[in-house]
Amino acid sequence: MDSTQQLGARYRVEGATAAQQEAVDVLARQFLLSDERLGEIIKEFRRRMEAGLASDGTMLKMVPSYVVWRPTGEETGAYFAIDLGGTNLRVMRVTLEGNGRATLLHQKFALPEEAKTRTLFDFIAQCVETFLDDHNMRPAATDPHLSFGFTFSYPIDQTSINSGTLIHWTKGLDVPGCVGRDVVRLLEDALLRLGLRVKVAAVVSDTVSTLLSAAYSDPAAQIGVIFGTGTNAAYYEDVTSLAKWKGADPASGEMVVSMEWGAFDSHELATLPFTPHDIKLDRKSLNPREQAYEKMISGMYLGEIARNIVLWLADQRLLLDGRSSTILNAMWALDTSYLSSAAVDDSPDLSAIRQVIEKTLNVPDSTLVDRRIFKIVAILVGERAARLSAVGLVATLTKRAEMLNRPITVAIDGSMYEHYPGFDRIMAETASHFIPESQFKNIRFSLARDGSGIGAGVIAMLATQHQ
Ligand code: ADP
Ligand code: MG
Q: How far apart are CA 13 and CA 366, in angstroms?
């Protein structure tokens, strides 16, 4: 598609003035990406993957996870897990029942601002204590330690299956004194301060645990992906391709690599289609010039991009008659979940969107045209995210092209993937344009709900078995 010529009826706003329509067309041209453009980005992505496998200190960190095993699905036993995403913290007991089945006992805690900026590890330890006490599972002084898998979804330099130093914070966390330190030690020290007999058997990213949760029930699982607060992916790599790996070669000959793909195109701002709205977000973020890909794709940022667009339109008096509100003026006021509800609002008066504009954002008296434009903004931002997410996916799928000649499962977790309407369909459809049909039919995209938690239990089991 040549997006400059054929914007299509979808972006025509009934009742809009010429100036409003022109502004919407500008947005559509910025946010619609041709396959040709995506193809170029995929090539650059692949180049960055190769660089990251070859040496340290590259844009894509391609972190060796020390996970060199695959579960058979027949393992049994109870294991514990902590899943730290960017929005929620979950503590759970994962009971592996064999036959690829696992059951979950879990408790969810919202990360308070204080934990995000100061007390993170003490907060996690307190949540573990609450969970164990609430379920009468706190080990007595004479009991053995409980083994935990720790899903820590921030880039670390992994130094063993249960140690790794933080490279930098992402996704809005900013806890001082952690960069360069072993996050497992930080957590175990906090647990010790509460007198809890708990050991961290493994630390993994949410992508690695999502992959392993799928692998427990599905031997075809090769790739784990997250589209939640942030985005990342992990896959089984042949160690001979992991040139920077200095350790002993694992018996299996393979290792899961956490790509840290959210960092794609950081610093250089060269390849991705940055609009002024992206640049405004980036400049005001906690990590300017970092995580460029993540900022166009994931839940933490999409609402904010849309808010920037809404203000850009309002400031030209092309939306809401130029009015704003204290709420709408504040950064992060528009949660990405509102884009999901706006994108599927098909009611005659767009009442869900009216609710968001008038109640959530506190700007009264929206017109139907305002709401129609708002809906297009939500669609443009969400669909660009879905199309761009196919870039990383295609680059990863074609990295080991021989894998595509038999059934292969991509396990995906995260609220953006689960809830943004059509995200899964658009992502898969876009990917299909870059992979031959005979191979594409072998690929199964599977929602691994709770995968980032269950997989941490699976990895705790594997690490304990192999220690
Ligand atoms: P985590 O990243 O902590 O594992 P999630 O996978 O639940 O957590 O992702 C949380 C992110 O998803 C938040 O940034 C939130 O804004 C976004 N989100 C939550 N609900 C929706 C929704 N319905 N549609 C799109 N994004 C959503
Ligand atoms: Mg998660």
A: 15
Assign 3-state DSSP to the chain and report helix, strand, coil percentages, each to 5: 45, 20, 35
What is the C-alpha R_g of the chain? 23
| Residues in a beta bridge with 256 | 236
- Whether 408 is in a domain gets the answer no
Between CA 397 and CA 223 the distance in angstroms is 8
Residues 427-438: tens digit of each pLDDT: 999 999 999 999
In a domain, 184, yes or no: yes
- What CATH number is given to the structural domain containing 454? 3.30.420.40
Residue 30 lies in a domain: no
Residue 149, SS3? strand
For the chain, first and last CA: distance in Å? 54
Given ligand 1 and candidates 84, 87, 296, which is best to mutate, with the most ligand atoms within 8 Å of its CB? 87
Task: Quote the tokens at residue 142.
Answer: 């004479």
Whether this model's pTM surpasses 0.90: yes
Pocket test for ligand 1, best of 111, 153, 332, 336 (most atoms within 8 A of CB): 336
**What's the number of domains the chain is made of?**
1
For the CA of 340, the nearest atom of ligand 1: 24
171 as an active site residue: the answer is: yes
For residue 105, give its domain range. 65-217+450-465
Give the percent of the chain with pLDDT over 90. Answer: 94
Which atom of ligand 1 lies at the shortest distance from residue 230's CA?
2
CA distance 368 to 289: 37
Residue 59 neighbours by CB distance under 10 Å: 20
Catalytic, 265? Answer no
Tokens representing 308 are 């920037």
